[in-house]
Amino acid sequence: MRRQCGSAPALSFSVVAALLAACAGSSLPLAERGVPGAPRAGFGGFARGTGASLLFEAEDTGSNAYLYLAKLPKGPTYTLATAAYAPVGVAFNHSGTTAYAWYGNYYGSFAAELDMIDVSNGKLVRTMPANGCGGSLALTPDETNAVADDSCENAVQLFSLPSLKIRATVGLNGLNNPTGVAIDASGKRAYVAGNGGIAIVDIPRARQTGIVPVPGGSCWNGAITGIALVQKLSWAYAATCDQASEQPLVAVVNTRSQKLVETINVGDAAKEWPLAVAASAAHHYVYVSVENSDGIHGELSAIDTRSDTVTKIERLPWSPNAVAMSPNDNAVFATTWRGTVWYSVGPGGFKGRENGPICCQTALAAFGDFVH
User: Fold this and answer.
1) Mean pLDDT across the stretch 349-356?
2) Is the pLDDT at 224 greater than 80, yes or no?
3) Are 348 and 307 in contact (CB under 8 A)?
4) In the chain, what are the domains?
């Protein structure tokens, strides 16, 4: 999703399910190509008024995985096909010239790798093998470090940029299955969401310095995904779930006192779970993607950070996975099985109707990232 500090690429429950069923194979080189069956009509509309020029989207079909890098408004779209390693977390640098992808293998040897991609031509520049099975990825504001969570190792891995060298692996205590990471404006602290709480990691010292217990847990396969920071409030918003009623929740945490403030129900029915969280820097809204238990339908929920209440829920015909703000913060985007859709930001969080879909029609799951 959009490059840190405000939000983090989130690993969706659907992505995990697809990766578990994926077949092993060897990676193929990047190649420019069209995306068969992918709707293209909305590219121009996507670019107008949002400031977006790049879309990063991942797909897992159950037998192959693909990473799409779409250059807006008219393409081209570059594709990296990966069978043994499926893309999980993605991030861009500030200028949008370099993309990073954190790949994972959810079976076998639990191998992972961090890849560096040249956006201008879609070519792989550098790769760093690692242990684990991939997860969410975030860059520090000065772009000297990448923080990648890893649910298999119950840890975060710290990479130096642009060399991709592994600085350290930081084991996490007080939570399990970390699947969401956000970095504060100083670039010194990472907030890692997992089942049971939010871990605080000192990035320069490469160590965990705290844990904030979060009530609830996972309503799907032990996974908690999605965390975003509202820097001016010193608030963190993290996805969780009431396991008894299977209601989707967002936990609000004061990052200064490292205390839980409250939980917010972000759904409109039982048997739902939250996936990704994105915070607007220019507007007072946090957005949450919610998946229904049928795995097909879902919603986008808007939280007004002035009152920490849900002000609007937009029902989607296809389940949303990743959610991200546009570069100018005037639109909120979500990746779905039918491609990426977006809403303009307005009163209550949304203005007008759904736009799209664009780019990469996905077979089972998708998530994305946006930059200028």
Assistant:
1) 89
2) no
3) no
4) 13-371 (2.130.10.10)
